[in-house]
Amino acid sequence: MTMHEPYYLSLQRRKWLTSLARRYPQRRSIALPAVWAVQYDWGFIPAPAIEEIAEVVGITPAAVREIVTFYSMFREAPVGRYLIGVCGTLSCALCGAEGLLDYLQEKLGIKPGETTPDGLFSLEVMMCLGACAWAPAMLVNQRIHVRLTRTRVDEILAWCRENA
Amino acid sequence: MLDLQYKPVLLDGVVDLADNPTPDAEWFDAYRRRGGYRTLEKVLHTMTPAEVVECVKASGLRGRGGAGFPTGVKWGFLPKDSKLPVYLVCNGDESEPGTCKDRPILEQRPHLLLEGIAISAYAIGSHTAFLYIRGEYFHAIEVMNRAIEEARARGVLGLHVLGTDFSLDIVVHSGAGAYICGEESAMLNSIEGRVGWPRLRPPFPAQKGLYGCPTIINNVETLAKVVPILERGPEWFHSLGTERSGGFRIYSVSGHVKRPGNYEAPMRITLRQLIYDLAGGIRDDRPLKAVIPGGSSVPILTADHLDTQMSFEGVEEAGSLLGSAATIVFDDTVCMVWAARNMAQFYRHESCGQCTPCRQGTAWLYKILDRIESGRGRLEDLDLLQNIPTKIEGRCVCALGDAACAAVKSGLHYFRREFEQHIERGRCPFEKPYTQFV
Ligand SMILES: Cc1cc2nc3c(=O)[nH]c(=O)nc-3n(C[C@H](O)[C@H](O)[C@H](O)COP(=O)(O)O)c2cc1C
Ligand code: SF4
Predict the structure, then answer these.
(1) What is the pTM of this model?
(2) What's the CA-to-centroid distance between B354 and ligand 2, angstroms?
């Protein structure tokens, strides 16, 4: 078996995973953290990273692939600089989420699942984001935005463009 | 009569997300200053684990994650003679639509939760606890990790907790977008580094759970409550609620109310008080049409049920379940077919696909509801909607399948005429102003 040089998982990431593994009774528990680490550094899970993750965690590539495809936050293809996830579930839907999604599609000129040609924005509909009492809500990369209005969405998009 | 002047315990000092989407957490020193970790200290120095379990039993505390199982009784199910390590898992997956009550605890009161986990771990003899947080809660994950670092540095976690022989590590495990991982046995698989497929029971986790070892799984709010219970005594806690529903709980009120939010209240509160007194009543003073009282997985209630007591037994008597106590409020403009379709879409997306009745059934429910809502429904569809749940319920590994049927069944029960109107007119008869974004 060929051992993979640190590539998708840097040496630093591997060290961190090794120390994390000591806190779990079984090494395979670092499978999700390892996939997360690749996604943080690369923005998605490149297909060739699967074998390297498998080797570091000590499970089969098929088991890693299963994880990547099962959990909806893991992505197999790159997305834009800002991934906008609009909550589409009941509490948000009762408070304008359908209109919010239309508004974003109109402003960005893309549909859910697409990325703007400049690579800046991707749009997705997400399942309940746990912000039900502050609807409508959307996640922009790691940050939740709540009680959205047209004005607020305009501000957020402008901020993203300025800070890209 | 209920005293609405009740002062919050868990949400004390918590900022509403609408006022500040990135509020500061209460860090170690601030928590310590207001008496934090004193209860853990008292427990470790003066109580045996069995006494802690007895105290939690006497408090009448029942699980806040959904099923409402008595917490102390669950802890008592652990085998007494096992040589295997015992694990504690804190469930912070919070993905049940309508539910947003664990978020403020995770984001703003991290040390209260750590203290609750520590006391509970001591009670059940566990030295490793896992805190599973849904992947979308990036901020909560960061806060909890930092709080754990602080607690270790101050000797509250680690080899000698507060200078005693008790040792405890708490590990944050991040999910990655799968509602089903909130189901306790799926969560165990996810922590083990597998896909989140629920496990067949028996064996129950208390016998054979994480890594095949005895495991207790409790919700974030449940474990946070262990602190005030041990601090002020089980009688105090129990007496706030009812005989069968001890204490208080956090109700997440969302939908068409004037002041949506998390309200911590004694479990004697009625639905009317919750909606009209705490949440300010219905938006624009419109009539109330329906309420889902316990997260999207429980049957819908109507305006006729406003005097329902929001205790486990009260909501059950009304024909629903208290579940996660997430109260979703619908005014009279809501189309019930549209609402049922939204729920069906959620469950179709979140079914793990392991059981055929759930995988296929949730897909069919969505497909049929979508066709009725978009005006392509047939009258036979109503029979199908009635029939499909009988093919799902009780035939699956976990409760998701049953949960997916709740809104459809109760929606049809109370609002059948609306479903028929969609089919007769070949279109949705509602204007749905609430879908507008301004
Ligand atoms: C499909 C499904 C999803 C669930 N999601 C959650 C959840 O997000 N958070 C939670 O605490 N419990 C959830 N539960 C309930 C857990 O299985 C479990 O009963 C609970 O965490 C036990 O803790 P408690 O006794 O403190 O309530 C879910 C159950 C099912 C069937
Ligand atoms: S009932 Fe549904 S979600 Fe639960 S195990 Fe079966 S297929 Fe998976």
Answers:
(1) 0.97
(2) 6
